[in-house]
Amino acid sequence: MANSRSGDSMLDRLVRILDAFDAQNPTLTVNALARRADVPRATTYRLLENLVAHGLLARDTDGQVRLGLRLWELANRS
């Protein structure tokens, strides 16, 4: 069920946020993350707070965002 103007579901937006990271971009600013994920900046901030709270993303001391330890822990279960 979509809840955005573009018709994207929340899961679509979450996956695009996680997919925004790659070998050349292991850390991103929130603005860069929003741009690369094609998610509005306000939505990115809101989702980021939840992803950080669950350990799926982490904020560095300089405000950069990176993949979180919990994401790696979940991947190692398989």
List keywords for this structure.
globular, 78 residues, mainly alpha, 50% helix
Protein described:
There is one protein chain. The protein is mainly alpha-helical and about 80 residues long. About 50% of the residues lie in helices and about 10% in strands. A three-stranded antiparallel β-sheet has the order 1-3-2. α1 packs across α2 and α2 packs across α3. The mean pLDDT is about 90.
Strand order of the largest sheet: 1-3-2
Helix proportion: 40-55%
Mean pLDDT: 92
Total beta strands:
3
| SSE series | HEHHEEH
- List unreliable stretches of 5+ residues: none
Percent of residues in beta strands? 5-15%
- The outline comes out as globular
The largest sheet is: 3 strands, antiparallel
The total count of helices amounts to 4
Give the helix/strand class.
mainly alpha
Task: From the alpha carbons, calculate the radius of gyration and give it in angstroms.
Answer: 12 Å
Distance between the termini: 28 Å
Set out the fold topology.
Blueprint: H1 10-19, E1 27-28, H2 30-37, H3 41-53, E2 57-59, E3 65-67, H4 69-76
Antiparallel strand pairs: 1-3, 2-3
Helix pairs in contact: 1-2, 2-3
In short:
This protein has 78 residues and is mainly α. It is 50% helix and 10% strand. It has helices spanning 10-19, 30-37, 41-53, 69-76; strands spanning 27-28, 57-59, 65-67.
